[in-house]
Specification:
alpha/beta; two-stranded parallel sheet; 11 helices; 13 strands; globular
Length: about 325
């Protein structure tokens, strides 16, 4: 039985991944520190099903704790690492850049070092579309320059990609860096736009609309992201950076309208200025993912929003 260590395994993507891996016969080590970036009880709810499974173990710890990581690897001997743990969020990183540097960069280096000491077959790193910054070329290709990040969060993700490449070069580790494009679906973090807007519209509270509503995002449904992550953990190539998105874009105004339609309620818009660190568009070129990972996303936004709203209503 293959043992997979999932850092950030109690979060949105991580908990769905843990469930999927358990369903397909893997042993799963969920590694999470349950920090207070958002309510830790939400994360415990996320993994409540997984931790009852006989093939799942929960390790509560910080990726900056090198000693605990070593003990976990020595005891559990994971064959694959899927590294999703990070201090998340573009806007909060503007206020706490030192924290983001410490958690994201030190933590990732610790994991790479321990994965080298206790060799794993594959290492998958969860990167972000934020590394593209204000990219004038659309859709975004993995070959585009990414040397102009516009937030500390984006800078840490790009730094981690470079460290992953270095460890592949020096030690021959097989590593895939996945650039996620605005993932959404059941269990999405409460601070993210789709979840936040749904909650506010449902309650009849003002929805903050930053900018003129024309900014566009490539929203990717969780089931499609999982397809790409599972394929990456089985990949046989040495080092690759791969986009995972839907390869379609939705404007902020269109997003609000989709949520209104799914809820059957109108939004009360609170117009706000464009925020520092925000980019005007994200748009994934997924031709590389299709070729290397046989990635085939198929969840359209209207369908995905309907599914999210159904979950939101059932979880209240």
């Amino acid at each position: 039985m293959e043992t997979v260590l999932v850092t950030g395994g109690a979060g949105f993507i991580g908990s769905h991944l843990a469930d999927r891996l358990l369903e397909t016969g893997h042993r799963v080590i969920v590694y999470d520190n349950f920090n207070d970036f958002y309510d830790p009880s939400i994360k415990r709810d996320n993994i409540s099903g997984a931790v009852r499974h006989s093939d799942c173990e929960l390790v509560e710890g910080d990726i900056r704790d090198l000693d605990l990581l070593r003990k976990t690897f020595e005891r559990c001997r994971p064959t694959v690492v899927i590294h999703l743990a990070a201090r998340a969020g573009v806007r909060p990183s503007l206020e706490q850049p030192r924290l983001y540097q410490d958690v994201n960069c030190t933590g990732t280096l610790n994991l790479l070092e321990v994965a080298r000491e206790f060799p794993v077959e594959n290492f998958v790193f969860g990167s972000s579309s934020s590394v593209y910054g204000v990219n004038p070329r659309v859709p975004f290709s993995e070959d585009d320059p990414v040397d102009l990040p516009i937030s500390p969060y984006a800078a840490t993700k790009r730094s981690n990609e470079l460290m992953c490449r270095t460890y592949h070069h020096l030690y021959g580790m097989k590593i895939v860096c996945l650039r996620f494009f605005t993932v959404y679906g059941p269990r999405q973090r409460p601070d993210l736009a789709i979840h936040k807007f749904t909650r506010l519209i449902d309650r009849g509270e003002p929805v903050p609309k930053y900018g003129d509503g024309t900014s566009r995002r490539d929203y990717t449904y969780i089931d499609d992201i999982l397809q790409g992550v599972v394929a990456a953990m089985k990949a046989e190539f040495g080092f690759e950076i791969v986009n995972l998105g839907e390869s379609e874009t939705t404007s902020l105004s269109e997003l609000i309208e989709l949520i209104e339609n799914a809820l059957g309620k109108k939004a009360q818009i609170e117009q706000m200025p464009t925020q520092a660190g925000d980019v005007p568009i994200t748009y994934a070129d997924i031709s590389k993912a299709r070729q290397l990972l046989y990635y085939d996303p198929h969840t359209k936004m209207a369908e995905g929003i309907e599914r999210f709203v159904d979950w939101y209503r059932s979880s209240r």
